[in-house]
């Protein structure tokens, strides 16, 4: 009998039958068995034990815990979430206090990091935008695209990538969408399944829900910087050159009517914000937008926002209604966020009847396309106007077209600053003052090396600068060597 068998017999235990090493099912010992020695009392001590580390819950268990904690939090807080007497800071403090108590009541062992992450996630779900909260807080992310609860894409530094963030369910995504749109008095449901909205910082939001969105609710957020970009920022990004910025500042101060043209996501609203910052203090500015996005830096500003129809199909206030009404508000400048319909006719008429210095944006891929699109939008007003009359209105009203392009390297550049000179026969004549230099090629990193350069042609409107005492540096219209036309 082996020593271990004698020890087991002394404790009244049955001996263990060991299989031969080559027998089926036999296992080789991993480490030798160390025999225990009796203590002075004759009792064999048990093997030493170490305290077990807290078990780390599986992801599914964490999701289940998060759901339980969220439900318990709503039971504890209840209607206080909608208490208008509570400030945002007080509401966050209340939720965090109650949430800590809820998590403490749970028996699931959590590490400090898991606990903090759980509290943060639930707080985002209750008061914020759920898994989008961290994406919204990241200043390097410019666009968030949700294609259903488990598919979120982001645009970061001009590139599209898929994020690891996800919603727990379609209902979770719908809750976040409804929270966003309800804060500005909009609604989204089966009878009105798409909506344009905005966040508190002006970021643009578009949401589409089933039955229009087949694969689940869709949410698109175009983020705006909390600190509005200044002209020096755009120069640093390469969007503008210092010479071009000087010319555009002079155009705004000289009360020229400017149209910012560009494709989707090319930075039109950002440039419009920068141009509006050149408006002198003391002038009355009326801004008109479908959803408030402009970040004006002056004090004397009246901001108007269009309103959709209510559930009965009544009460709609369109951009065109606001443009007409703005003419009775004694504006020095009218800034229309974007023209996309019949309001274009009213805006052109305002530009032609004493409201100089107005600014707006339009979707188009070139200055020539911008003129053609303005013609089409005027026709949408329902007025049976001859094409020549429309073109004469455009040629008379618009002084400058600034073309923005999002290049294939992801950067946004001003690719043309074009003067609208007038009419020749049936054609609106245009003259480029600046054009982007594509001939400089592309660098090793895939970025375009070119920049907007002067064509050497001095626009006619510079005569107006001299009359108003606005002086430009001689370098503004200097032509780089080898770039003359």
From TrEMBL:
One GO MF term on file is: ATP hydrolysis activity
The family database entries (Pfam families) matched by this protein are listed as:
T2SSE
SUPFAM superfamilies membership: P-loop containing nucleoside triphosphate hydrolases (SSF52540)
Residue ranges, compositional bias (Basic and acidic residues): 1-11
Residues in domain Bacterial type II secretion system protein E?
128-410
Annotated region Disordered: the residues are: 1-27
Tree of life domain:
Bacteria
Family, similarity comment:
Belongs to the GSP E family.
Supply the name of the protein: Pilus assembly protein CpaF
Species lineage, top-down? Bacteria, Bacillati, Actinomycetota, Actinomycetes, Mycobacteriales
